[in-house]
Write a structure and sequence with these properties.
Number of domains: 2
Largest sheet: 8 strands, mixed
Distance between the termini: 62 Å
Shape: globular
Bound molecules: 1,6-di-O-phosphono-alpha-D-fructofuranose
CATH superfamily of the largest domain: Fructose-1,6-Bisphosphatase, subunit A, domain 1
Strand content: 15-25%
Number of strands: 15
Length: about 350
């Protein structure tokens, strides 16, 4: 039996026995148990009847895969008996008011990256825990900075749980024999400078100038104004990109673009960008729309989309600068400039 702390032992060691902290820890423990059950399904795939086949569309028009629906059911069952005021899920049109007097509310994306299921690529679960306001129906009309906890699970070669309770970021790996998550990374810190970017480059013609200028600067590598060569990754699974950034740094971009319906990007604020931003900032990184800090945003609607740029702080700051100083973006992007600036040298 390995000696790493279990998730429960780590949370017990975090202190905070007041009712609010206790409710948070109970919810995290239940979400972790649900993740183990979802992991059992993802690692068996078709043998568990998971085909990735579309089963219809959720109310926001996203294609709903079989595992989206089953993961949503597993999580609701796991949370059902707990003192939770409001549930919000990517798979639910509206909030579910359970016990308005309960201290916490939980929003989750039960299965992120579901377009990867039948290609055996990493998928995941993302969750955000908020304090319940006096008007429980406004549980997710709060800035992301109000979150009490956030986490995500990657169902990949390992099943890993990434968690912040507001005092740094820990990584837990599922011990499949003992069926418990064990601490394998504590107080994780993202390298401040990175030379790896993640974006769906097929959308370049739809990007705004600052994003195009930043990516072109990365592509120009050591020949450009950035002065260093970059690598690129795009997995099509937010949780996998985020996990890689926590481990080796990098910058992830899902910006708004000119495509119909993508003016505010693809990712959802309440149950994707808010929790991811909380985790990334707790690990010393940055998370922005390009112009605003994601954790400062107050959702207008439950399934609101938001541009999400997150990762190594210096890279995120460079991109923000390009959004607020268009001349910088123009200078980087103008075709008349030679590789090394206005005059070829
Ligand atoms: P699905 O859950 O529909 O597969 O979307 C996954 C996701 O929201 C996020 O995890 C990826 O980073 C992003 O979409 C990929 O989007 P593109 O398919 O447009 O590249």
């Amino acid at each position: 039996m390995s000696q790493e702390l279990t998730l429960q032992q780590r949370m017990d060691g975090e202190g905070g026995s007041d009712p609010l902290r206790r409710a948070v820890k109970e919810a995290v423990a239940a979400l972790a148990q649900a993740a183990i059950d979802i992991s059992d399904l993802t690692c068996r795939g078709a043998l568990a009847g998971i085909t990735g086949k579309a089963q219809g569309r959720n109310t926001d028009g996203d294609v709903q895969k079989d595992l989206d629906v089953r993961a949503d059911q597993i999580i609701r069952e796991a949370l059902g008996a707990l003192p939770i005021a409001v549930l919000a899920s990517e798979e639910m049109a509206d909030l579910e008011i359970l016990n308005p007097a309960a201290p916490i509310s939980v929003a989750f994306d039960p299965l992120d990256g579901s377009s990867n299921i039948n290609t055996n690529m990493s998928v995941g679960t993302i969750f955000s825990i908020m304090p319940t306001p006096s008007d429980a129906s406004a549980a997710f009309v709060q800035p992301g900075s109000a979150q009490l906890a956030a986490g995500f699970v990657v169902y990949g070669p390992q099943t890993s749980l990434v968690l912040t309770l507001g005092q740094g970021v820990d990584i837990f790996t599922l011990d499949r024999v003992e069926r418990v998550f064990k601490l394998t990374g504590s107080t994780v810190q993202i390298p401040p400078n990175a030379t790896e970017f993640a974006i769906n480059a097929s959308n370049r013609r739809h990007w705004d100038l600052p994003v195009r200028a930043y990516i072109d600067e990365c592509l120009m590598g050591a020949d450009g104004m950035g002065g260093k060569d970059f690598n690129m990754r795009w997995i099509g699974s937010l949780v996998a990109e985020a996990f890689r950034i926590l481990i080796r740094g990098g910058i992830f971009l899902y910006p708004g673009d000119a495509r119909d319906g993508y003016e505010e990007g693809r990712l959802r604020l309440v149950y994707e960008a808010h929790p991811m931003a909380f985790i990334i900032e707790q690990a010393g990184g940055g998370a922005t729309t390009g112009r605003q800090r994601v954790l400062d945003l107050v959702p207008r609607t439950l399934h609101q989309r938001v541009p999400l740029i997150m990762g190594s702080i210096k890279n995120v700051q460079r991109l923000e600068h390009m959004h607020t100083a268009p001349d910088v973006a123009l200078e980087t992007n103008a075709p008349l400039f030679g590789h090394r600036g206005l005059f070829r040298v």
